[in-house]
Amino acid sequence: MNFADRLMEKVDEKRSHVCVGLDPRLDQIPTEITDKAVAEYGTTLEAVYHSILEFNQGIIDAVADYAPIVKPQMAFYEQYGHWGVKAFEKTVAYAKESGLLIINDAKRNDIGSTAQAYADGHLGSPKFWDEQKLESNSDSLTVTPYLGSDGINPFVETCSDYDKGIFVLVKTSNPSSHELQDLESEGVKIYEKIAQLVSKWGEEVIGKRGYSAVGAVVGATYPEEAAKLREIMKNSYFLVPGYGAQGGTAADVIPAFNGDGYGAIINSSRGIIFAYQQDRYSDDYQEAAREAIIEMREAINQALAKAGKISW
Ligand SMILES: O=C(O)c1cc(=O)[nH]c(=O)n1[C@@H]1O[C@H](COP(=O)(O)O)[C@@H](O)[C@H]1O
């Protein structure tokens, strides 16, 4: 099974196309968690580590029945140095033990030889001394395509060797994504050209169910572009961020799916993990996260059924 097969198995098991973004912002973590950590460890990075980990574990417990996959965004962890990276690693291990797949959202890439080190560290297994190996627990990684094929090839080979996946930035959700991505060259927009490359890069790693281990990031905030991109990258799984907090709705994400009711995994971070701060959800952060993910899962499943894109 390639990464897409493994993802689709989880999607079927949970009957859910939702990805939960684990973007822990310290000042939004419930104070009962941060106060306890500070009481024990003081206002130290160790207290930050314990706060993030306890919060993430609580979120994972709350959403594990309703999500096939989670996406910790590396920036929220590595900003705290080695304590943050430790929180990331422990979070990933806990998500894996809880039966979830993981997108490591670190948006990496470089020249080929350096990209190989990123691929080994984040998806494969860097070797050290003689027989020692460090296996990455992440199932997939976000990568930038800016360096072209020789930056991408090491990732694709590692995906093939370890049944892992990548999501290449194609059309991002942010307001200024048009500044570069929508420029035209030879009558083709840059994001369309990247999509053509994504399709080509993925040809050698197609799984049993027809989807490639090379996926694409396509923002929920650009549904018209998503429809065009769906045509260009028929075999790619889309990671679709921008639902909820950035304005994307269930109707907006439907063009990212294929007619078979698969092909897109929709991420919400703040909208789920900090749902307890919104009036319409419970004050308890775990209960609120559960309410928010169930609501999102149903909204997407209903919109898919309405569009005749039936997954089950
Ligand atoms: O690659 C991503 O995940 C990503 C790409 C993109 O185009 N837009 C985007 O918002 N993201 C990430 O998706 C998450 C969105 O978070 P919320 O806006 O809180 O749901 C953040 O972790 C972003 O870094």
TrEMBL record:
<dbReference type="GO" id="GO:0006207">
    <property type="term" value="P:'de novo' pyrimidine nucleobase biosynthetic process"/>
</dbReference>
<dbReference type="InterPro" id="IPR011060">
    <property type="entry name" value="RibuloseP-bd_barrel"/>
</dbReference>
<dbReference type="GO" id="GO:0044205">
    <property type="term" value="P:'de novo' UMP biosynthetic process"/>
</dbReference>
<dbReference type="InterPro" id="IPR013785">
    <property type="entry name" value="Aldolase_TIM"/>
</dbReference>
<keyword id="KW-0665">Pyrimidine biosynthesis</keyword>
<keyword id="KW-0456">Lyase</keyword>
<dbReference type="GO" id="GO:0004590">
    <property type="term" value="F:orotidine-5'-phosphate decarboxylase activity"/>
</dbReference>
<dbReference type="InterPro" id="IPR001754">
    <property type="entry name" value="OMPdeCOase_dom"/>
</dbReference>
<dbReference type="InterPro" id="IPR011995">
    <property type="entry name" value="OMPdecase_type-2"/>
</dbReference>
<comment type="similarity">
    <text>Belongs to the OMP decarboxylase family. Type 2 subfamily.</text>
</comment>
<dbReference type="InterPro" id="IPR018089">
    <property type="entry name" value="OMPdecase_AS"/>
</dbReference>
<protein>
    <recommendedName>
        <fullName>Orotidine 5'-phosphate decarboxylase</fullName>
        <ecNumber>4.1.1.23</ecNumber>
    </recommendedName>
</protein>
<feature type="domain" description="Orotidine 5'-phosphate decarboxylase">
    <location>
        <begin position="17"/>
        <end position="292"/>
    </location>
</feature>
<dbReference type="Pfam" id="PF00215">
    <property type="entry name" value="OMPdecase"/>
</dbReference>
<comment type="pathway">
    <text>Pyrimidine metabolism; UMP biosynthesis via de novo pathway; UMP from orotate: step 2/2.</text>
</comment>
<feature type="active site" description="Proton donor">
    <location>
        <position position="107"/>
    </location>
</feature>
<keyword id="KW-0210">Decarboxylase</keyword>
